[in-house]
Amino acid sequence: MLLLRLILLNAFRHRLRAVLTIVGVAVALTAFGLLRTVLDAWHAGVEASSANRLVTRNAVSLTQPLPFAYKGRIRQVTGVDIVAAGGWFGGVYLDEKNFFPNFAVEADDFFKLYPELIVSPEEQKAFLSDRKAAIIGRKLAERFHWRIGDTVTLRGTIYPGQWPMTIRAIYKGARPDTDETVLYFHYGYLDETMKKRAPTRAGQVGFFMIGIRDATRAAEISKDIDALFHNSQAETLTETERAFQLGFVAMSEAILLAITAVSYVVIAIILAVAANTMAMSARERLGEFAVLKTLGFGAPALAGMLLAESLLLALAGTALAMAVLPPLAKGFAVGLAQYFPIFFVSPTTIMLQAAFGLAVGVLAAAVPAWRVAAVRIADAFRRIG
Amino acid sequence: MAVPLSYSWRNLVTRRLTTTLTAGGMALVVFVFTATLMLAEGLRQTLVSTGSPGNVIVLRKGSETEVQSGLERVQASAMTARAEIAPGSDGRPLAAREMVVLIGLTKKSTGKTSNVVIRGIEPASLALRGQVRLISGRAPQPGTPEIMVGKAVAKGFTGAEIGQSLRFGKRDWPIVGVFDAGSTGFSSEIWGDADQLMPAFGRNAYSIVVAGLREPGLFESFKEAVEADPRLQAEVWRETRYYEKQSDMMRKFLTVLGVSLTLIFSLGAMIGAMITMYASVAGRVAEIGTLRAIGFTRGAVLAAFLAESTLLGLIGGLAGVGLAAGLSFLTFSTTNFQTFSELAFRFTLAPWIVVLSLAFSLFMGVVGGFLPALRASRLGIVEALREG
């Protein structure tokens, strides 16, 4: 009990210095947590991928279409279970600042491929039976206060004209990393309209989502599909959904990685400064430890006291960082909503924060503790004079 | 009567190591701050300089980028005949119908695929883009599948050197030239004959029309005429404005990310400055007592210590901006997620960034030093002298 009091009093002997140390640790760990959350958000699409889904697209680039007629041939490839054609629609709601992803898909098959999009049976039925229906994610509905039955008109950027559609269903994500900001509508609606407006552009799709039964055969099936269309006017490139998403991420990751690398250096420096401050206060009190030694406290007890002191400060900082991070991440998520549909602090990030906080506490105590244990009492007293 | 500034300065010089460490921490924070702003600015300037002030660009109504746009042959040709368009050196209108598509190529640095703009051009395209100069090889012959690549493409992608060839649309496209378009977006593009490229991509429509006006003032009348024609379904932009718009999304992203990160970091740096300044005050209690005893006011002492921490911030700021300025020589190549295509651009240090970064560092110095300075100014004279 007495020891506990001693530790507490010593830790806050220089009240200001202690507070600054705590805040310093908290700042570094908060910045670290935020950065990791940004990186997680960047990779969210990759994490949400399923090993049982392949994506077939035009080999030239994602912006080149494929003939819809490929669907039948892909379905005959051994191991292919479901094929759903779809495409990036790229429609704008009122103003381009309101960006959200929107796709035209063959809804029947598409939703079989995506069990993580949860829709109530009656809404699903309503969506499937209305040619001009749309289904939207929960977050998207919240963002624009859309309700079932509302009519939303998208302005086409790739497919010209105005595209009115009625919201018939709202889906929820089964997992925290499921994107709930997407709008899906019927590929049939898109294609029939294009037949009237620009017949040469009808019968084309952006990609085929493919469900396979056996994930271990993904590479083989991909090869078989691409072989079908080799040397045709529109060659295909088939890869797992994960690889497809990774490709997206890799394209624009360079900037993020550069910022992250520099930031980690800054964070490490802040932590080192905080650790040094803690070690400094232990160094100043060498004489006091000599007194305690004289009183019969052994080296382990003294080392334990020192450790407890620096852990107290480091963990207080860590706790502060953990408390600040979630609300901060929320603010960030709002500010960057159009870039990061999924932005939440992962448990791993919290664990890492705790681990680093602990490490700083231990490291800060290590050197002074060793010195206190090793110092001869007489030498320590001599320092005081 | 104020304490001379040299007093504050000499105090910093005396404790060289502490000063260096504290200023170093600030310098790093300023460095991150400046570097992200430089990236955003580099992106903007690259895109702004891609457009030429005298040029207009016509896209399909509602399309945000060249790649999404499409203009049927008949409509595209109708626009090139308008009177506002200047005649070229060959006497024909200075207008080009171009096709713009993306093609996936492998990046040398990562081995991953990125999308590169491939532009099908007409003879007038080169005259309209004064920034484009051949640096090796020759321009592609019209009517052949020859292509030329921008400097950034030749440097950054595998198989895109002169003498090699790309394969798409069931044929090989030999690279016969490399062109340099300075720090514009064109340096990240591939150019070939539009009539050759369109069938290869299964296209029968152009993407855009680019035209040079007789004089910039004719923009309004050209815009009105083209946008009012219901058969065309087109929208008209000044080329400079159109390209600048392509940097909006990425710029906002970089700025938000960079500024919020550095704000968090700056807390750490300010704490560092605070610890340093408190230690500095604690070590000079007797000195402060002497200053007060010989007649300097509390305000003067406060100012002297505040000056010290502000100088600390300024040193950090100058070092940080200096470090970041060194990045100006680096080219950065990444996908612009608004256009979905690869773009090479430089870290660009604009005067406003320097001013903002230094202001930021001074702010850190002032905030970090305020409490310690306040403490110094409020010491009792007698007690302080007794410490000595």
Protein model, in words:
The complex is a heterodimer of chains A (385) and B (388). Chain A is an alpha+beta fold and 385 residues long. Chain A has 2 domains: 1-46 and 252-382, no CATH class; 60-234, no CATH class. In chain A, 56% of the residues lie in helices and 16% in strands. In chain A, the strands form 2 sheets. In chain A, strands 1, 3, 4, 5, 6, 7, 8, 9, 11 and 12 form a 10-stranded mixed β-sheet that branches. In chain A, strands 2-10 form a two-stranded antiparallel sheet. The longest helix of chain A has 37 residues, at 299-335. The radius of gyration of chain A is 30 Å and the shape is elongated. The relative contact order of chain A is 0.18. The model of chain A has no long low-confidence stretch (mean pLDDT 91). Chain B has 388 residues and is α+β, with helices and mostly antiparallel strands. Chain B folds into 2 domains: 5-48 and 246-387, no CATH class; 62-232, no CATH class. In chain B, 50% of the residues lie in helices and 21% in strands. In chain B, the strands form 3 sheets. In chain B, strands 1, 3, 4, 5, 6, 7, 8, 9, 11 and 12 form a 10-stranded mixed β-sheet that branches. A two-stranded antiparallel ribbon of chain B has the order 2-10. In chain B, strand 3 (95-106) and strand 4 (113-121) form a beta hairpin. In chain B, helix 9 (248-282) runs parallel beside helix 12 and helix 10 (285-293) crosses helix 13 (381-387). The longest helix of chain B is centred in the first third of the chain and has 35 residues, at 16-50. The radius of gyration of chain B is 29 Å and the shape is elongated. Chains A and B meet through helix 2, helix 10 and helix 11 of A and helix 2, strand 3, strand 4, helix 9 and strand 13 of B.
Strand content of chain B: 15-25%
Q: Greatest contact pair?
A: A-B, 58 and 60 residues
The computed structural class of chain A is alpha+beta
How far apart, in Å, are the first and last alpha carbons of chain A? 32 Å
The level of helicity of chain A is: 55-70%
Unreliable sequence segments of chain A: none
Quaternary arrangement of the chains shown? heterodimer
Using only C-alpha atoms, the radius of gyration of chain B works out to 29 Å
Q: Poorly predicted ranges of chain B (pLDDT <50, ≥5 residues)? A: none
Work out the number of β strands of chain B. Answer: 14
Reading the helices and strands of chain B in chain order gives: HHEEHEEHEEHEEEHEEHEHHHHEEHH
User: Which descriptor suits the 3D outline of chain A?
Assistant: elongated
